[in-house]
Amino acid sequence: MTILAVDFGSTFTKGALVAGDGTVIRTAATPTTGTQGSGDILDGYRTLRRALDVPDDATVHACSSAGGGLRLAVVGYEATVTAQAGHRVGLSAGAKVVHVASGPLTTKEVSGIRAARPDIVLLVGGTDGGNADVLLHNAARLGKAAIGGHGAHAVPIVLAGNIEARDEAAALLAETQRPTILAGNVLPEIGVVAPESARAAIREAFLRHVIGGKGLSKDPAFGTMVEGATPDVVLRGVEVLASRVGGDVLVLDIGGATTDVYSVITPEGEDASLRKDVVATLWHGRTVEGDLGMRWNAPGVLEAAESERLVESVPCWEELRTYAAQLASRPDAVPADDRERRLDVELARLAALVAVRRHARPAQPTESPRPLANVTTLVGSGGVLRHADEAGRERVLGSVLADHAGGWKVPRAAKAEVDASYLLFVAGLLAEQEPDAAAAVAAQI
Pfam families under this entry (predicted)? Predict the structure, then answer.
């Protein structure tokens, strides 16, 4: 058996040809097609198949973040409780959270959701057996709201609130034929976040209602091929890697528009036994920093670095500022010489430091920081690290592991490595149906 794993990205479509035992035969990437209003995304896919010399009988597994990925709006009860829990669960499901609303929805707030253009709305609210009024009010408002269309043509709702009020809320949504997928409560009780049911429901909504409606392909084969949003699949890959190494894992993915941080950690001691926070830590989690990108948001990296007081650590600050401004207007730029490669690494170092600090620090002043001291493996991903030399990789990842002034507990004894062949998504795609092959892929990272 031969397996083709494909990631339809916003810029490149990446693929890996894998033997049945998980041995990676070869990898390739081609520009993504069909995302600019013309062509078809499968045109680039066919080019990728030719580049990889894929057998006709290969089994295909695919994920996608093309066409803007998965845009999610969260509607909750209280901003610091269920809405915050929903936000964290949405990120762990691979979504870009484009809007968060809390409390009883007003006409103005519904307009705000509509303006954010979500693909899915995650409706949460109340612990099990707790207050149901806000959840029911919001279900009624969303059922009547024209968000992405009316009735059956509106964006789907994932309902993941107070389990005792769920059927009544679902009935309110059904009155207008609103597409709805039911899930378990993301916050069944104070101090407990239960992400898996909602994460699976978001994945189902993405596959059933969203991916085929992005206008990326006229061929239904594309919608059939895709099994999930890329960040969700990558998180599954990080889980596979953590199982393989037998320890906590931190992954840093530095992209052109965002910097994503994933961590899979096992709580110990007080973290494992006490519910210290109203919204508990997600032990398998992801954060997305939309202002930290190597191209589109390069100036944002420097602004964030200034806020974090990192300017003095940069030996070429003014030169880097000029370079970042140029990159924002040339998002397809590739370093042309050693000077630009050096500046690219410095920009990546700053993005990495800020992103990991934000991932590790508590979301609210009353919450606990993310316990990363026991991380045994730090994995860097993204084009800048894949193309950097060993010194450049050490400059970026070594700075993260030495960030003792960053306001978080750095890993005590972590090994740093780079996902040079971009295999985390492959492990994630194979995790459910081919777990042994997924583990073998993770061993090659």
Answer: MutL
